[in-house]
Specification:
Helix content: 25-40%
Radius of gyration: 21 Å
Number of strands: 16
Order of helices and strands: EEEHEEEEEHEHEHEHEHEHEHHEHE
């Protein structure tokens, strides 16, 4: 069979013939239908992720996929290193999979879970979101940010969603997918802060989901601050998830003293085991149902697995995920 393989870290995966995987007791050989290229896999291949140590070289690439079992069931399944899902076949445990609705597209089913789970945990666990709250998504034009907008509005019942991002075309799409207000980021971060302050004064933010950090986060946090000693308390839970705009910020101490800002991070190390225990039994089935009903969607760019080397670092439109199809 053919698979995406690396010989050393930092190398772009190659399309190469490899032996078919063995299926130990309790596992079966499944035919892969689609596997998405995600940031975590790029980090693993670069050798910059702590999970890279679990990949003995040469290594096949890919953490999850849509596949068809020998009994005909079409499923979503994961595969931890050193196994790789960007291949024609993978060995899976047939009782440890998520069966997919018939009307869910292979590419969307492969592209959605990683980003949607991150957004779900940011909203439900870290954000402690309640229905009718006002939610600001900073970095909404990215893949995960776009799903956070949709889930906040349609899954968790947000009363008001503010989508903030750079790409004006994607912001326009998000306005159709659940965003009540859209704010474009340019290089004038003072103006961004002033705009967000105005929106916050009209409809105070209960929750901020931040995929950017850096200067956009400085602007957003500054917009939450109060200059009036008699200002009324309003709780805003600020969830830091990503850092695509920078790994550090300058935060004035007065921001935290003058407003009800609760700053918290969300990542693999900050989600308890009992929350992860709900993924296969509750959260992923709910997400695939939402995908089936059209409640959420994710744009994809499909390429043959044979073109993995070209697709690996290929630029895509904002919010679009590349999916490989054997």
């Amino acid at each position: 069979m053919y698979a995406a393989v690396i010989n050393e870290f930092g190398q772009v995966p190659e399309y190469r013939q490899v032996p078919e995987p063995e299926a130990p007791d309790g596992q079966v050989l499944a035919q892969v239908r689609a596997a998405a290229i995600k940031n975590i896999e790029r980090m693993l291949v670069d050798g910059t992720h702590y999970g890279s140590a679990q990949m003995p070289l040469p290594a096949q690439v890919g953490l999850d996929a849509v596949a068809v079992l020998p009994d005909g069931r079409r499923v979503y399944t994961g595969s931890a290193p050193p196994a790789g899902t960007m291949a024609e076949f993978i060995a899976v445990e047939p009782h440890n999979v998520i069966e997919l609705p018939d009307d869910v597209d292979d590419a969307q089913a492969a592209a959605m879970p990683n980003a949607a789970l991150s957004a779900w945990f940011a909203l439900e666990f870290a954000g402690q979101m309640q229905a009718d709250q006002t939610v600001l998504v900073l970095g909404a034009t990215g893949v995960t940010g776009g799903l956070a907008v949709q889930l906040a509005k349609h899954q968790f019942g947000a009363g008001h969603v503010v989508a903030v991002g750079r790409n004006p075309n994607r912001l326009g799409t998000l306005a159709d997918l659940g965003a009540d207000v859209t704010v474009r980021i340019d290089e004038d971060f003072d103006r961004l802060g002033q705009t967000l302050r105005g929106v916050h004064e009209q409809q105070p933010f209960d929750l901020v989901i931040d995929y950017l950090w850096g200067q956009p986060a400085q602007a957003a946090l500054g917009a939450l601050a109060n200059d009036d000693l008699t200002a009324e308390y309003h709780r805003t839970r600020y969830v830091q998830v990503g850092e695509t705009a920078g790994g550090t910020i300058e935060l004035r101490a007065s921001v935290l003293r003058s407003a009800g800002v609760e700053l918290i991070g969300q990542g693999a190390g900050s989600v308890p085991r009992e929350a992860f225990a709900r993924v296969e039994t509750e959260i992923l089935p709910a997400l695939f149902t939402a995908l089936s009903s059209g409640t959420i969607s994710i744009p994809t760019h499909v390429r043959p697995l044979s073109e993995v080397a070209a697709a690996w670092d290929e630029p895509t439109d904002s919010g679009v995920r590349t999916v490989l199809v054997p």
